[in-house]
Amino acid sequence: MTNRQHVYRTLLKGPIALAALVFLPACATPREQTLRQTHTEVGEAFPSHTVDPATLTSLDDYLAAAYQRNPQLRAAYHRWEAALEGVPQARTLEDPSLTGTLFLEQMDTRYKVSLSQMFPAWGTLRLRTNQAGARAQAAMHAFEAERLDLFERVVRALMEYQYLEQATRSTAEHVRLLEELQEVITARYRSGSTQYPDWIKIRIEQERAQDRLAGLQDQRLYRSEVLAALLHLQPDAPLPWISNLAFSAPPADAIRFEDLLPQLDILNPELRAMDAAIEVAEHAVHLARRRGWPRLMIGAEWMVMEGMEGQGDDTDVGLMAGITLPLWRSGYRAARRAAQAEQEARQQDRQNRHNQVRAELAMATTQYQDASRRLERFNTSLLPQAQQAIRVARQAYADGRMEFAGMIDAYRTLLDLQLLAARAEADRGIALADIGCCLGDPETLFEKEP
Prior knowledge:
The protein is elongated and about 140 Å long. The chain is built from eleven helices and four strands. It starts with a helix and ends in an 11-residue tail after the last helix. Helix 2 (30-44) packs antiparallel against helix 4 and helix 10 runs antiparallel to helix 11 (404-439). The chain has helices at 3-23, 30-44, 59-69, 71-90, 124-191, 196-230, 257-260, 264-267, 269-290, 329-398, 404-439, and strands spanning 97-102, 109-119, 296-305, 314-323. The protein has a four-stranded antiparallel beta sheet with strand order 1-2-3-4, with helices on one face. It is of the alpha+beta class and 450 residues long. The chain has one domain: Outer membrane efflux proteins (OEP) (Up-down Bundle), CATH 1.20.1600.
């Protein structure tokens, strides 16, 4: 090997190493690896399949179908996927530049080929990679927040659907009792034991109750469609009634705002997504500073030159280096100010959302305690008393010791209390779902009944 060839090979080592750095894929960061593994595990539970509405008999069935089929949740999953794919893009250098020059006029140099690579300012790739990782983490927490929001909407729709079922059943039973009473009143009226106004009143009460029942039955289609929309279903008929959602609610004294508050910042996925968004903005501030730093360019040229008479062409290799000249400082300063303003805005948004979630948690715990207290009072005291009042009123009316209006009031009171008890049960379930969504772990609150 001649000395000249040795020099060429030595000079080419730099560009060859540079090309290897450009074209070989960069390694994934630990954060990216963790996010991709989590994304894969979540995606394995996402295969959409046909759901038979007749098989939906419990809260778990509805939640499983919603998680697998809801389009909004799947959209959040794909946004997370898109953010993940931004990480390898962020850590990749710009494409190298390959140019060729052919000289048309007679010159010493016949043609040359140049290969150059532009490098960003020191630390820019690391900052961009960390920023993209934080953006992907924010998308992951946003997906989890969307999943919790779906949980709350499914529970709310189910509670309203169950309330409608209980209200329909109670009203239908009320209509049946009035029909039995109407038969008694008719018999007594024919025998002369009852006045005509009593017969008219029972007929009016029947019409009122039947109209109320028809209104509840008309609501079933709407409530069913709300629930089916969350599951991405289009059933031919209203979804089947759910007689029991099969979960045991915690005691009211176990749900205390002051005990749950410390978990808010740790577990709430929406706040964690905003923390990741703040990290994205912090990296943007550092990247804006580096926009005013020079960028380095390194390259190599291969030239073919006309040789001496009677000899072949000569070749030569040259190395190139250069930097950018960031002269227009006003634009760079404006970029830094914009990035800092965006960072401050996201911090304020996060504080505002924390205040809102705190208030939502306080309201949900208060509603849960209130609904639990009402439900216990209805079940242990008021409903048994109202049922006892019905039996006493019927006997007193039969003995002539009570007016007909008093007996009708007893029937109305029982129905109203039954509806209020059903409403309290629905409110308790909705409040429990709200509490769980604020804390980021609603499933643990909805424990299955033994």
